[in-house]
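Researcher: First entry.
Model:
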Amino acid sequence: MPRIFISLSVFYALFLSGCEPMENKGDPRSVFNYNELNGLTSLDPAAASNFENIQPVNQLFNGLLQMDDSLNIEPCIARTYDISADGLCYTFHLRSDVYFHDNVCFESGKGRKVVAKDFVFSFNRLFDSKVSSATTLLDKIDRSEKTNFKGFIATDDSTLKIYLKEPFSAFINILTMKYFSVVPFEAIDYYKLDFRRNPVGTGPFVFKTWEEGTVLIMHKNQNYFERDASNERLPYLDAVTVSFIKDRETAFMQLLNNKFDMLSGADAFNINEVLDKEGNLRELYDKKFNLQKETFIKTDYIGILIDENIPSVKNSPLRLKKVRQALNYAFDRDKLIKYLRNNIGTPAHAGFIPKGMKSYDPSRVKGYTYDPDKARELLKQAGYDKDRKLPELVLHATDNYKEQLEFIQSQLAENGINIQISIEKPSVLRQAVSACEYAWFKRSWVADYADEENFMGLFYSKNFTPQGMNFFHFQNESFDKAFEQAQRETDLSRKKDLYQYMDSIVVEEAPVICLYYDEVIRLVGKDVEGFTTNPMNLINLKSVRKKEITK
């Protein structure tokens, strides 16, 4: 606890450089402070594979395109773009007023202008699995003799061409992901592997310092290229700090004491204390905060490793589909949402594709409901009954899901299924799941881009971890065929049907136990203006202001 306050005081010393504290009358400088329960692992956009990394990367970097709050694609560094009639060539025309942040990696420490070859360099980095978590996203890039084995080509300083092997309907959405941010080759040459903690981008904020596990500090980019409707240069804030207090009660006290401007997520504070059972702010807190809520295209689930070629799975009862189905029937998702989440989110009674996506339809994709009789019958069919009990199963999770999983543990026990909950550090859990070390694990999946391909890609057989995101090593020929067809499909109605068909296969084979489709929820200080929400829960701070509230 003391270390946190020391770090914040260090920040003010760095930021104000001996000036009076900015709360003093007449000092217009403003800082946005928020907390992230889980620590960062990297500030390199090539490693922006988890929610915690994506948020600060979004402040530090830009790509060709971006999404607005309604998930519409907008130009960013690309001024305009066009797609060839055959869907194989994407041409981007770049802005001429975008510059990298000032940094010692550049000559005289002055950031230079971004040109098309910077995107060629940045995107080619993503092919290296030692650097990037995005290698499978590049499968459709055409690096054949036809493109002189390149795929990404800068025809001049302001024109970038990207060539695909075949039409890929989700590709334009994929380019909005943080992976596809532009980075300067000078910074990679200068910092090498330490670029992860010395990021150099073009974003609205510039990296200042990162004390891992304690605080991240970013300053205003005085040369940022985007402007508001009145032609005022963005951003308005002078700085952003991100703290990493793991204890949510401590973090909430910081919010109450005006040390934080925002807390995000139902796991970030005690919802029973702050919200009523309908999910609204209690009167005490309604006077102090604004509550932001909207659909979140995120699925919380329990994943199951089912690859029998892995020794730990070969004799595991989880390899049996009927056992996996029984687990899905053996607990009440509605009670989980009502009593443990105060009606934040929607019980997952459909497939893996969440509410908020076009293909979400519980009447077409029928998931699991609470049915203990069905659960016991399936276990019996799998060979487990009173005489031969199911062995105890170990479920790996992080501490912020402990209460929910203890509820599930209790309900499973009522149906003859005993589980042990093993609490892990987030970084340990991520690495172990990627390395196929855990057979049963609690995770969530947040859309990186607004296409169902992002969710169904987790079950495509060519995306096995550690190279891809198929944590379950799920493999199904019919699924793969439909997935590949959907990637080429441009008819939206047909594409929707294909994704619903795939999702139904996932429900039947049960490599996952879908828990709920989440909801964006934030507590935001009354003095914060321009802080909008979006279904991806992406934190955008470039248009945020802090107003002075008269006490």
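Researcher: Second entry.
Model:
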Amino acid sequence: MKNILSSLISFMLILTSSQAEDSVPPIIPLRDFFRNPETTGYEVSPSGELIGFLKPVDHRLNVWVQPKSGGEAKQITNVKDRDIRGFFWKGDKYVLYLKDNGGDENYHVYVAQSDGSGSRDLTPFEGVRAEMIDDLEDDPTDLIIGLNQRNKEVFDAYRLNIETGNLKLIAENPGNISSWTTDHAGNIRVATTTDGVNTTLLYRKTEQDAWKPVITTNFKETFTPQFFTFDNKDLYGVSNIGRDKAAIVEFDPETGKETNVLFDHPEVDVSDLHYSKKRKVITSASYTTWKEEKKFFDPVAEQLYKTLEGKLPGYDVYVVSSNKAEDTFVVRTITDRSLGSFYLYEANSGKLTKLADRNPWLKEDQLTEMKPIEYKSRDGLIIHGYLTLPKGKPAKDLPIVVNPHGGPWVRDEWGFNPEVQFLANRGFGVLQMNYRGSTGYGRNFWEAGFKQWGQSMQDDITDGVKWLIDQGIADPKRVAIYGGSYGGYAVLEGLTKTPDLYAAGVDYVGVSNLFTFMKTVPPYWKPFLDMMYEMVGNPEKDKALFEENSPALNADRIKAPLFVAQGAKDPRVNIDESNQIVNALKKRGIDVEYMVKENEGHGFHNEENRFSFYEAMESFLAKHLISSSKS
């Protein structure tokens, strides 16, 4: 621990001097951080002759298509209510995308023709959510989707013809299947079931055979299929069975045995496995330490990345799309200070053509680096995180915004974050931490957060703030806390549990009452309720725990001013969660600002709503952190 602390202190001393040497950048217009990109989401068609991308039309991202050889781009969708967040090609003739209504997360599948001749809703069912199972890349008209049309709590598998709109039920969910897996021919041959706590992998040799259970584990130990081996016999997957850190393994579904470990990492979970569909070889695995890294298995893929990194030095490089021949690629660059650019790379000629900058109005030299940090919690657990400090200012007595991530069963990663860069540009230091319960650091770290909402998970956040204060970086009188979803809960719990630590809080679609939160989860979460009871707590068996750690029930402890933002159609954190905390504080005369957007759900996705929220947050933080330093 002594070595860790001394290295961190040295890092801070270096950081302090380097920050002081930089010039203070200009104030960047708030909307430049949060406006829709100029263009984004580039995808090359299967032939490689067409390029699709997203571009705003009347402030809504729509799909455009242009020939690779050049020429005018054509708008092929005309969505006006919400952005299209992503799309995929179906041959060169069709583009498909998912879109919900006002944030309700009941996504529909839409198809548009690449020549711009029209688009249709293929799943026009009220209150029904569609999920992708297999895009059947080699089939010209069909794909496999999941729909909870028959039973809102579970998803049946359907074959959908995008030309006729015909839906054919191909696998009915008996009520306990949480996911389906196809082989390389598009046959559904693996399913995962849950009883709420235990998970069973089901397997069948062909679609005509009966399902048979292969392996059953408690939800804490899982084998998650990635895809079949290329002979369609075994499975590649991510497994933490019998180990702390998840590894990439090969698994025999006939015997239920792991046959080979392809790759593991001693410090973090390995998350994904990638392959070449054309060459039928495993190419790489992904894992995240303080930033995403790759383990290559294939010299062709490794050389491709080395070539691209040589052509684009100083950036993290990602191949985001390729044609079927795997000789034409869309490449994306990114850093912690840039949303990067898109390029077209033609491997046969070695030609690299810039397609577009994603957000050209943001200049890298005006933004600031996101540095990895670690500190020790009060019970000795090492907590990893990130610290972003305002450019051109000494790292001393700064106003700080503590930003715990949502989830909570995800993790923060290094990369460009518009919220963080905006706050740093306004003179705030930003502290992000992967508190216990965050994923990516192994099973033990994840389980250390079970039934710890508002307790040791919150202590990890508090200990990070105190660490920053002890380092002299944070002004103890000017620390705010901001977060969304679980992060919003952490805001409310921080103001409740440590009322003198924070000068202000911003709660964005956060949970305020554990009792009501558990009662209002979406219907398709209900099969997982027993698991939620083990991870969060049971409203009946853990009544005292819920009472102590529900901010709405302990609002009398809150002293600091609060800003709350909520989407009216949020299916995950019901609007009543925000109503409860706001009403409880208003009764006591506490300064609380409340913003509700009627056409949003779990987070604000429409551009004008993002502007409204961040403008209000900027004024709120300036009032309670910046102004307070002058009084």
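Model: Note on the second entry: Confidence is low (pLDDT under 50) at residues 1-21.
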